[in-house]
Structure formats: structure tokens, C-alpha cells
Amino acid sequence: MIDSNPGDCCPDTASCAPLPPPQQGADDDERLADLARAIAHPLRVHILRRLSAKNQCICADVVNDLGLPQSTVSQHLKVLLDAGLVAVSVEGRTRRYCLHPQGLRELRTLIVNL
What we know:
Layout: E1 2-3, H1 26-38, H2 42-54, E2 57-58, H3 59-66, H4 70-83, E3 86-91, E4 94-99, H5 101-112
Parallel strand pairs: 1-3
Antiparallel strand pairs: 2-4, 3-4
Helix pairs in contact: 3-4
């Protein structure tokens, strides 16, 4: 989700674009596999934990925290964004990332329904 509003990134679940309702069957399996791949890297799990603790951050926050190149952090943020686990708001040249609650709920639901 890209929100050009300069306010907080996803201050509530209504501000995040809704994800389609979870389906049953082969599509569920494919979606769960996609989400599992998105969280399969320890750095991406760390980013999710940081976003959970801080509510939102910019790429530079994670770069400074981990001492990794900006391009590496951006690549991992893109994987999480593409999977629907993270949302972003754009303020000029700054992109603020936050957890996407509906994406996390979908992941939880798919795991619970294994």
C-alpha cells in the first residue's frame, strides 16, 4: 500500500488497503508458502519485530540499527511489502514503513488452519 498522506503510517486498520479474504484449498497453500518465504530470512523477521516495537520506521532506521547497506535493507523491505506484511506511506522522498495488520492476520489465520 502506498499512502501519500503525510500522517502516520497505518494509524488504524481502516487506513490500510484490505486484503482479500483467505480462501481454502490450493490457493491457501500457495499464499501461505508466499508468506512463509517472506518471513524466512532472519533479517526480515528482525524488521517485523522492529516495526512492531516502534510502530513505524524509515529504511535508514533499520540500516543504522543493523549496520547493513541501505540497498540490502530496501530489498528486504520490498519483499515484506510485496507479501502484504508491511505497508508504506510516502512523504516526499521519505518512505515510512509500518506493519500491515491485515497481512499479519492473514498469515496467522493460514497457519492456524493448517
